[in-house]
Each structure stands twice: as C-alpha cells, then as structure tokens.
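Deliverable D4.2, example record:
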Amino acid sequence: MIQSYLIALTIVIILAMMDSDPIISFSGLLLDVLIMSFLCWLVVFPISILVSRIKTNYEKQRANS
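Output generated by the structure prediction step:
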C-alpha cells in the first residue's frame, strides 16, 4: 500500500511540475500535490480496504462450503 502511494505521489509531482513552473509557482506545485494526495487517501485507500474485505469474506465463504 505504501509503495503504491509513493508511486502515485511521484507521478503527481511529475505531472504538477509539468503543469506549472515550480520555480515561479512553488505554492501551486504544493497545492497540486496536497490535493492529489488528499484525493488518493479519500478515494483509493477506502476502495482498497473494501476490496480486501470482500476478498476475505469470499474466501471465508468458499472455505465453509
């Protein structure tokens, strides 16, 4: 999970640097990175937890059958 987050963060930083000039607009770069990190934790993390719970429940049901 941490490795996926770091890869996503690296991609976000690269895209943010392409979007705005970080030397002139460092605050814009930071804002882009913070917003994307927030979205990642708000969207990706809960979905991954949900998928792991569904997988666990499916494996339990399969073992009981």
